[in-house]
Structures are given as C-alpha cells and as structure tokens.
Amino acid sequence: MVAFAFGLAAASFLPILLLGIFSKRMNKEGAISGMITGLLFTAGYIIYFRFIRTDLDNADHWLFQINTKGIGTVGMILNFTVALVVSSLTSPPPTKVQEMVEEIRIPEANPRSGS
After folding, report:
1. How many domains does the chain have?
2. Is there a domain that residue 12 lies in?
3. Residue of 10, 40, 52, 109 with fewest CB within 10 Å of its CB?
4. Neighbour tally for 29: CB within 10 Å
5. Is residue 10 a part of any domain in this protein?
6. For every residue of 34-66, which 3-state class applies, written as one string?
7. In a domain, 115, yes or no
8. Residue 112 falls inside a structural domain
9. What integer pLDDT is reported at residue 110 of this predicted model?
10. Cα 75 to chain center, whole Å?
11. Against a cut of 0.85, is the pTM above it?
C-alpha cells in the first residue's frame, strides 16, 4: 500500500511542485491537466491489474514490463509532458505570479538579517 501511495503522489504532485518552482510559464491549466493525467493513468493501471484483472498481473501483460508498484514513474513522466504542453498552448500566468516564482527561486537578501 505504501508503494502505491508514493506512486500516486509521484505521478500527481511531484512534477507540478517542481514545475511550479522552476518554470515561470507553468499555469493552472497545465498544472491541473498534468495532475489529472498522472493520477488517472497511475490509479487506473494499479486498479486494473490489482483489482479488476488479477489474472493478468504479471510481466507478460504489464506496460514496458513495469509492475504496479513502479508505474508511478511513467505517470510522473506523463504528468510532466502534459503539463508542459498544455501550459505552452494556453495563456501564461499573470505577471504577479511569475514574479512570485522568481522571488522563490532567487530570494533577495533580508535587510533585517544583516545579509
């Protein structure tokens, strides 16, 4: 169960967290599309092989011979891909959001701390 939880988290949240910090172009449409894609793909794969077609739960039937415990990696790649494509095809986030992302990535020295 723990492997499934981490696989689902990796397929849904990790790419958006990284892209949200390191890509000023990432917008809500891209983030939502990527998260839904990663989550549905990974959950669907796990549910199909673990609960619906348990007789097919072996390497002969798995996608790229990846079992249900490791499929979160493929979901994560799909999430990255969909999020980047959708965000490049839709309008960029507001300037204020882009500035906030830049501030998170490269914080200014705090004048009160003496640095």
Report:
1. 1
2. yes
3. 109
4. 15
5. yes
6. HHHHHHHHHHHHHHHHHHHCHHHCCCCCCHHHC
7. no
8. no
9. 57
10. 8
11. no
